[in-house]
Design brief:
702 residues; alpha+beta; Beta-Lactamase; 4 domains; six-stranded antiparallel beta sheet; 18% strand; rod-shaped; EC 2.7.13.3
């Protein structure tokens, strides 16, 4: 029973193992067959059937271990075949991928090299070039290897290196940036202007800046030429507009010079006008010229210097370095550091009317086109100068015509006024003639005749009875004679005042030595001055000045002024007479204060040379409100009871005609007199008379 059970178990185990072996080889063989197409379905079926039969019959049980090893080997072999097949597939895929990658690389390089624009790949942190296309090599003349080895300073001239680095920073910050005018230095040393468009991107796994550069050198040059032409046209139009609307030649030339200097970017310049009378050049407008140079070139004689040669030849002249130019005549220009120079004629109708010049402190020569533009400007300005001269001449003729018409109208009005005034004067003269006749008759018959008798009788008694009279009688007789003489002087002054007022006093016209007159006046009062202990100073008279008039009456005039100073200066005081030459222009500053003493003087004086004689004292002075009244007839300063009647004593009173006669006599000689008095006292009488210089007098005499 037990044995039967064990046998049953062995069979069951064998059946299970066979079933497993049947299933396992079938699965393995099917797997190998799937991996290896050589193995056929028929062989699998035969093997499975043979194995199945052997297992059922129980004949294969002793060979199970060998069978297991064979199956395992068969499984490993099949596995290796699968891996080899997969590896071959991967290698084929990698080969295909490498061929595609190389194809893409060649295609990318072809696209990069055949692009119409120059393309850069740039390291964003340093700005160095990583890769370029063939267009970059063609533009710059370097190979790609040389470009990579270049420094930024070698590739970008001047400040354009900083502009390039700022462009990189903008790209990193914003992801995109442009630079329309970035200058590159080519291998042959020339400059190339490029318009750069840069964008942040990647090259492989690295972040780079993709830059596209277009060569815009010719475009920028054309734009520059176009802008220059526009500036030239604008300048010509502006000059034409200024010429059409100008009002003054000096302002026009200065404005044109400013425009020309700005357009040609010069550092300074000027415009000369030619004086056709002698050919000299006169600087009419200038800018940025040093004072030392300006003083040296303000007026240029004919044929001297480059500007004069331009005016003489009518052709432009230039110099790249004035410091070494033998044609330069001005040492001040060399000292000032002028270098580049250009001068062109200002001409109109084949006649040079001026010269325009520009200068620079560096060695610069204008191009032919710039010189042609300056010549065109010169023709415009020359025509404007000639037109301005004609316009000024026409204006001058017009002003002369208008002045002649006004003068004619004024003459007509003056003639009518003179006729009316003549009629009035005739009536006034008739009345004055009657008054003069009456006064002369009164003075001659009623005063002079009895006075002559009295004075003659007194003088006769003095001569005959002087030895017979005692001291008291002699004193009385001397007083009688003195009073008569005083009364005779008063009558003489009254007659002279009347004649001055009626303008009937005869005045000689002779040469007068003012110095001699003043010395004679001093001699007349020498004893009085010593007796009164008055300090008198007579200053020298300016040489070469001569008066023309009546010597006697002028001497009496200065004597009256000195007499007035003696009367109003206390004993021990000081009096001085000084004189100086003056011109009429000096007096206009004091016209308002002086015209109250003689309004006619400033209306009729022609403005010739004058001499001012001043009689000054440190006496009692004159109040402001009385300074005009002292020249009135019969007026004396102060209370009549406050002074004695002495002619030379301090405070002596007169008849009140002395200063009236002084004023009348000075004005009769074409002059004027006025008085000044300070707050500390003292008075100064100023006599102003027209003089004739010695040279003019000699010419007149010959």
């Amino acid at each position: 029973m037990v044995a039967a059970t064990k046998k049953t178990h062995r069979r069951s185990f064998a059946m299970a193992l066979c079933a497993a072996l049947i299933l396992l080889p079938g699965t393995a063989l099917s797997t190998v067959a799937a991996a290896d197409p050589v193995m056929t379905t028929e062989r699998n079926l035969n093997a499975n059937r043979a194995l199945h039969t052997a297992l059922i019959q129980g004949a294969a049980l002793p060979a199970l271990p060998a069978l297991a090893l064979g199956l395992a080997w068969l499984h490993q072999r099949r596995r290796r075949n699968v891996l080899r097949a997969e590896l071959r597939n991967k290698e084929q895929e990698n080969a295909l991928a490498l061929r595609d990658l190389e194809h893409s690389r060649r295609r990318f390089q072809q696209l990069l090299d055949n692009a119409g624009d120059a393309i850069f790949f740039i390291a964003p942190d340093s700005g160095h070039l990583l890769q370029v296309n063939r267009q970059v090599e063609n533009l710059l003349g370097y190979s790609e290897t040389e470009i990579r080895a270049l420094s930024l300073a070698e590739l970008f001239p001047g400040h354009h290196e900083r502009r390039y680095l700022r462009l990189m920073r903008r790209v990193v910050r914003n992801g995109y940036a442009e630079e329309p005018n970035l200058h590159f230095r080519t291998k042959n040393g020339q400059r190339l202007v490029g318009a750069v468009h840069a964008r942040l991107g990647h090259l492989d796994d690295a972040q780079v800046v993709h830059g596209v550069v277009r060569d815009v050198t010719r475009v920028r040059l054309s734009e520059q030429q176009l802008r220059r032409k526009n500036r030239e046209l604008t300048l010509l139009n502006e000059i034409a507009r200024r010429i059409a609307g100008h009002r003054g030649l000096d302002e026009l030339l200065q404005a044109i010079l400013e425009d020309v200097i700005n357009v040609f970017e010069a550092q300074g310049g000027g415009i000369y006008l030619v004086h056709h009378s002698d050919g000299t050049l006169q600087l009419a407008a200038h800018r940025n010229i040093e004072p030392e140079v300006l003083a040296d070139i303000q007026k240029v004689p004919q044929g001297t210097g480059m500007a004069a040669r331009v005016a003489a030849s009518g052709r432009p002249q230039s110099s790249a370095d004035l410091s070494n130019d033998l044609r330069l005549r001005s040492q001040a220009i060399r000292t000032a550091g002028w270098r580049g120079f250009q001068a062109i004629p200002l001409s109109a109708k084949d006649q040079t009317v001026g010269v325009l010049f520009l200068y620079n402190r560096d060695q610069r020569v204008l191009s032919r086109d710039e010189v042609h533009l300056l010549m065109a400007i010169g023709h415009q300005v020359g025509s404007a100068i000639q037109g301005a001269e004609l316009y000024e001449a026409l204006r001058w003729q017009n002003r002369l015509t208008e002045a002649s018409n006004r003068e004619l109208q004024r003459s007509r009005r003056q003639l009518r006024e003179n006729l009316d005034q003549a009629q009035r004067h005739n009536r006034e003269l008739a009345r004055l003639e009657a008054m003069k006749s009456n006064f002369m008759a009164l003075a001659s018959h009623e005063l002079r005749t009895p006075l002559t008798c009295i004075l003659s009788g007194a003088q006769f008694l003095v001569q005959r009875l002087e030895s017979r009279l005692d001291a008291e009688e002699t004193q009385l007789l001397a007083a009688l004679v003195q009073g008569g003489e005083r009364l005779e002087a008063i009558v003489r002054d009254m007659l002279e005042a009347a004649r001055l007022e009626s303008q009937s006093l005869y005045l000689a016209r002779e040469k007068i030595d003012l110095c001699q007159i003043l010395h004679e006046v001093h001699g007349e009062f020498r004893a009085v001055l010593a007796d009164r202990r008055l300090d008198f100073k007579l200053h020298s008279v300016p040489e070469g000045a001569e008066l023309t008039g009546d010597a006697y009456h002028l001497q009496r005039t200065f004597a009256r002024l000195l007499e007035n100073a003696v009367k109003y200066t206390p004993s021990g005081g000081g009096i001085e007479i000084r004189s100086r030459l003056r011109c009429f222009a000096e007096l206009h500053g004091d016209k308002e204060s002086l015209s109250r003493f003689s309004p006619v003087f400033f209306q009729e004086t022609l403005g010739g040379p004058l001499i001012q004689v001043t009689v000054a004292d440190n006496g009692i002075g004159i109040e402001d409100e009385e300074q005009l009244r002292v020249f009135d007839k019969f007026y004396e300063v102060g209370d009549i009871n406050a002074h004695s009647t002495s002619r030379t004593g301090f405070g002596g009173k007169g008849f009140g005609l002395g200063l009236t006669l002084v004023k009348g006599m000075v004005e009769a000689h074409g002059g004027m007199v006025w008085v000044e008095s300070g707050p500390a006292g003292g008075s100064a009488f100023h006599v102003l008379l027209p003089v004739m210089l010695a040279a003019a007098t000699e010419d007149q005499g010959t």
